[in-house]
Known about the structure:
By secondary structure, the protein is an alpha/beta fold. It contains 12 helices and 18 strands.
Amino acid sequence: MECGMRGQLEERESKIMSPNQSTAEVSHLAVDIGGSLIKVVYSSSNNNNEADDKGKKSSNDCVGIPNGSSDYPVLCGRLHFAKFETSKINDCLEFISSKQLHQCADWHHEASSHDKNIIKATGGGAYKFADLFKEKLGVSLDKVDEMDCLVAGSNFLLKTVHPEAFTYIDGREEYVQIDHNDLYPYLLVNIGSGVSMIKVDGDGKFERVSGTSVGGGTFWGLGKLLTKCKSFDELLELSQKGNNRVIDMLVGDIYGGVDCPKIGLSSTAIASSFGKAISENKELEDYRPEDISRSLLRLISNNIGQISYLNALRFGLNRIFFGGFFIRGHAYTMDTISVAVHFWSKGEAKAMFLRHEGFLGALGAFTSFESHGLNDITTH
Ligand SMILES: Nc1ncnc2c1ncn2[C@@H]1O[C@H](COP(=O)(O)OP(=O)(O)O)[C@@H](O)[C@H]1O
Ligand SMILES: CC(C)(COP(=O)(O)O)[C@@H](O)C(=O)NCCC(=O)O
């Protein structure tokens, strides 16, 4: 995936470094420690490639960064992405330590001494685990506000990475061309453990207008209890093989199989999520985990889609971007959210998804390094 920096935004840690890559190539590190997951973003300067490319480095390869003066230093490098469960924070610390990411080198010798051995950190865990980072890695966490970071990460991606945003309609992803002059305002919905809804009016200009505690943590937490699944991905996989009609009470179940045109509901619409369970003489064990997972995913995605649209309506916004790791690029999740937004807005509003869904906060923290000036990034 191309972004402003030369190379690609990597999501797979295995591709990141060759075994003999020196730690001096890593220049900056930022973490987003959320309720469920820790997201790590770091940059490396690709010294090897630079040597190979000597003399033929084209401006297309790199990113120019206005530094307040007339010259534009050029960044060439890669952004690397990794994530860990927050409950396994020691794995994350071990990862940072084994790759010595916390001993960040200067970026082209231009990083201020202030930036050295400082990790930009956002999310609630930046407060909760600050002492642990100090004790285990000897580094200080420079805390950056969570909402600031989400917005900065989202704006950075939308303006710099193409393609980043896409719609998901009838099983098809369609990339959205972002017009930089017509990006704002938009609603950013970040579905992490909980859900934040932010009206974004520009760089650093935003208001958190709503939120709901029924989010990704609810799906994973309830799903784990109800299905005995061991991992989030297993729960998602189950949902793919399930049938929500086994548990959800449909309009047709109430109206004797017929549509209900007066209130605009077809007989197959869900009247009450999990509602069938009240009238059947069944125990939890009598339901297939696949069906439970499907109903739960539908309930939560639908609910978030609806609340998002209602907030977009409050502020007259037509564009809604969804991020957060709950989405996980999962077809049924995106489809349900898209259908909910389409249904409630009568086709007026659009749900759009971000490819770097769960990394918005970490990217926002990363771009806050002053010595980068990535906020002011311009692609050549
Ligand atoms: N491997 C995973 N482990 C746990 N949760 C996951 C995983 N992948 C996706 N998720 C979902 O993503 C949510 C966390 O999303 P994220 O954007 O990282 O939020 P937070 O910052 O609250 O951790 C979880 O609550 C869960 O619904
Ligand atoms: C408190 C949070 C901002 C923390 O972020 P998270 O770790 O969930 O990404 C988020 O969980 C949230 O917005 N919860 C919803 C709270 C509410 O508005 O009711």
